[in-house]
Amino acid sequence: MDKLKVAILIVSDTASQDPASDRTANALAPILDAESKWEHPAVRIVPDNVFEIQRAVCEWSDDSVNWYNLILLSGGTGFAIKDNTPEAVSPLIHRHAPGLVHGMIAASLKVTPFAMMSRPVAGVRDKSLIITLPGSPKGAVENLEAVVKLLPHACLQSAGANSRNMHAAGVKSLEAEAGVSSGTHSHTHLQKKPSQCSHHHGPGHVAPKAHTSSNRQQSNDPSAGPNRRYRSSPYPMLSVEEALLQISEHTPEPIIIESPVNTAIVGSVVAEDVYAAESVPAYKASIVDGYAVIAPDSTNNAPSTKGVFPVASVNHANVGGSLSPLKQGTIARITTGAPLPPNANAVVMVEDTDLVSSTPDGTEEATVDILTGDIKPGENVREPGSDVRLGEKILARGDVISSVGGEVGLLASTGIRTVKVFKKPTIGVLSTGDELVEHDDPRTLTGGQIRDSNRPSLLACLSSWGFPTVDLGIARDTPASELEHALRDSLRGVGRASSGVDVIVTTGGVSMGELDFLKPTIERSLGGTIHFGRVSMKPGKPTTFATVPFKETGEGTTQQERKSKLIFSLPGNPASALVTLNLFVLPSLHKLTGLGESSRAISSKPWLAPQLGLPRVAVVLTHHFPLDPKRTEYHRAVVTASRSDGRLYATSTGVEGVGQRSSRVGSLANANALVVLRPGRGVGIKGEIVEALMMGGVYGSDTRLIC
Ligand SMILES: Nc1nc2c(c(=O)[nH]1)N[C@H]1C(S)=C(S)[C@@H](COP(=O)(O)OP(=O)(O)OC[C@H]3O[C@@H](n4cnc5c(N)ncnc54)[C@H](O)[C@@H]3O)O[C@H]1N2
Ligand code: MOO
Ligand SMILES: [Mg+2]
């Protein structure tokens, strides 16, 4: 018999930094070598990080050529916060092996009651047997020794060997070595072929409840095949309002970064009150072009400003150095914004003066006649700090740095070089489907191929909202592992998503088809939680929202814990994808970007206040709109403002025939609003006032009148 392949994954933050500190791998290897059934183990070390662990296990189990029969993990199985090896491994397991877990704990309990504090996991993924062991060399050795005799047999069965033959050939001796007797129960168990196990996972079987958010059944098992898929969705149908509440609840709080004041902060929300670092103006400045004068007041006994005065000096804006004081009886020429010389207290506009004489060379003013005596101290002068006082609060937490430029101007003028803002989330967009072809592929479509229109349209929409995006490409439906790898890579920040994403938006694969793998992949393979998988709306019924646990540490941030990443899995139909992006993803992005803080700061409203998501307005229907009997419809429409009566009017982008069909992305071309049509019989009547969500600016019109 060929030797079996075995890999050891050491899970330890310490050993990942200092590989020499690991003693467990060297302690385990001799136990396997003694069996002479194993190749020398491959060893790798990763930190206590769910994604690193999953990546290594998948590499060893999923490669169709170089897969390993046995994958042993050591470390991260205790109760400490950072111990998350079982959480990383459980979702990867297709068929659990509680017997091995029981055997290991029973053996350890003979040695120490602390065995109860270990949380081992064991089971089969594809053809590989995966077992977690404690991190200490002693504990790992004890656990491995407890099961090692059974492992060659277990691995061969997992790999698909005929168990009857194996049983006849060697089980008796195995049992003898392991010190167990071959009772009826163990016979039955060992005789089961791996493929037979899958019938446990069809509908009717209560799957292990790992990360579901309710008591419902877990999503379809992709390996069960179409004849075993659910024939009704296990996901409860939520109302749009309930779905928005779930999103609100599970969208993490925004995190703060220090950002330089430049164009990139436009659209950001200020995270801490900002105080002026400098006064504006920093000096006494002229508001006009003219002559600085000493206007009479009770303190200076100056004569009237009316009369002819010698021009003593010239003050331009941008002068360096110190200015000589203005003497009584003289004036100084000055430009707008320039500093007044000491003693000057007012400026006379050049329009209120006449030139009397020039210097002998004819190039300069010698004397000027001031035509008005009605100049008061302070006239045409900006006092230091009169625009902005040093230390004055110029922006408050929650303020939005708008594209108008006023906030950037304030920061720039007061010497603020960096500002604390909430980090804008980065969104990765992934299309799924075997039928998809790049939209710009020059080849003619064949068979059931269609162009991927969702990715470009979603990326365009997200960019227009001002969020950084990552194009995650297309993941095929088959093999299902392609989707799993694409999502995991994006969550871990490798490949196309190397700069990291906070939110993943996928389209396709969320409904009831046998290739609709999104939900099972999130739940079963990534250990995510699906908060909802169906919404009573049209279009967009199968919209799915999930969170996947994650810990982030990065540069330049002050609060580094983003505990989970968000996945919005939108329906594949193009109109459904865009409508649900607007309706569900935008409010979440707004919360992540700190706009929730904004609404709290401004009005103490909860985060679902109108500032989050699309603005809501009341519109008048310009014609009859058909209603759906069950689902709330988000009808694509053009909203115009009437100049005659100041009201907003909504006209459908197409009510006849296929106008609003969810495959018809054209229903969103020119649309600037989603008209909210509550379910009912018949039609929404022309002239009726309903709610609309504005996706773009209102068009102007004075012709849109109804009677
Ligand atoms: N038996 C049932 N079937 C369907 C139901 C249902 O409740 N029971 N729901 C329907 C509804 S409603 C929708 S919406 C769709 C959602 O389908 P999926 O999200 O599973 O998406 P796919 O099956 O992958 O594709 C649907 C459709 O969209 C096209 N598509 C997919 N991706 C793209 C893309 N990137 N660019 C352009 N077009 C795309 C795909 O080719 C299909 O034509 O399910 C109904 N079925
Ligand atoms: O819910 Mo679907 O998006 O109507 O076609
Ligand atoms: Mg589908």
TrEMBL record:
<dbReference type="InterPro" id="IPR036135">
    <property type="entry name" value="MoeA_linker/N_sf"/>
</dbReference>
<keyword id="KW-0501">Molybdenum cofactor biosynthesis</keyword>
<dbReference type="GO" id="GO:0061598">
    <property type="term" value="F:molybdopterin adenylyltransferase activity"/>
</dbReference>
<dbReference type="Pfam" id="PF00994">
    <property type="entry name" value="MoCF_biosynth"/>
</dbReference>
<keyword id="KW-0500">Molybdenum</keyword>
<dbReference type="GO" id="GO:0061599">
    <property type="term" value="F:molybdopterin molybdotransferase activity"/>
</dbReference>
<dbReference type="Pfam" id="PF03454">
    <property type="entry name" value="MoeA_C"/>
</dbReference>
<dbReference type="InterPro" id="IPR005110">
    <property type="entry name" value="MoeA_linker/N"/>
</dbReference>
<feature type="domain" description="MoaB/Mog">
    <location>
        <begin position="7"/>
        <end position="154"/>
    </location>
</feature>
<keyword id="KW-0479">Metal-binding</keyword>
<dbReference type="InterPro" id="IPR005111">
    <property type="entry name" value="MoeA_C_domain_IV"/>
</dbReference>
<dbReference type="InterPro" id="IPR038987">
    <property type="entry name" value="MoeA-like"/>
</dbReference>
<comment type="similarity">
    <text>In the C-terminal section; belongs to the MoeA family.</text>
</comment>
<dbReference type="InterPro" id="IPR008284">
    <property type="entry name" value="MoCF_biosynth_CS"/>
</dbReference>
<dbReference type="GO" id="GO:0005829">
    <property type="term" value="C:cytosol"/>
</dbReference>
<comment type="function">
    <text>Catalyzes two steps in the biosynthesis of the molybdenum cofactor. In the first step, molybdopterin is adenylated. Subsequently, molybdate is inserted into adenylated molybdopterin and AMP is released.</text>
</comment>
<keyword id="KW-0808">Transferase</keyword>
<protein>
    <recommendedName>
        <fullName>MoaB/Mog domain-containing protein</fullName>
    </recommendedName>
</protein>
<feature type="domain" description="MoaB/Mog">
    <location>
        <begin position="428"/>
        <end position="591"/>
    </location>
</feature>
<dbReference type="GO" id="GO:0046872">
    <property type="term" value="F:metal ion binding"/>
</dbReference>
<dbReference type="Pfam" id="PF03453">
    <property type="entry name" value="MoeA_N"/>
</dbReference>
<dbReference type="InterPro" id="IPR036688">
    <property type="entry name" value="MoeA_C_domain_IV_sf"/>
</dbReference>
<feature type="compositionally biased region" description="Basic residues">
    <location>
        <begin position="186"/>
        <end position="203"/>
    </location>
</feature>
<dbReference type="InterPro" id="IPR036425">
    <property type="entry name" value="MoaB/Mog-like_dom_sf"/>
</dbReference>
<keyword id="KW-0460">Magnesium</keyword>
<comment type="pathway">
    <text>Cofactor biosynthesis; molybdopterin biosynthesis.</text>
</comment>
<dbReference type="GO" id="GO:0005524">
    <property type="term" value="F:ATP binding"/>
</dbReference>
<feature type="region of interest" description="Disordered">
    <location>
        <begin position="176"/>
        <end position="233"/>
    </location>
</feature>
<dbReference type="InterPro" id="IPR001453">
    <property type="entry name" value="MoaB/Mog_dom"/>
</dbReference>
<dbReference type="GO" id="GO:0006777">
    <property type="term" value="P:Mo-molybdopterin cofactor biosynthetic process"/>
</dbReference>
<comment type="similarity">
    <text>In the N-terminal section; belongs to the MoaB/Mog family.</text>
</comment>
<feature type="compositionally biased region" description="Polar residues">
    <location>
        <begin position="211"/>
        <end position="222"/>
    </location>
</feature>
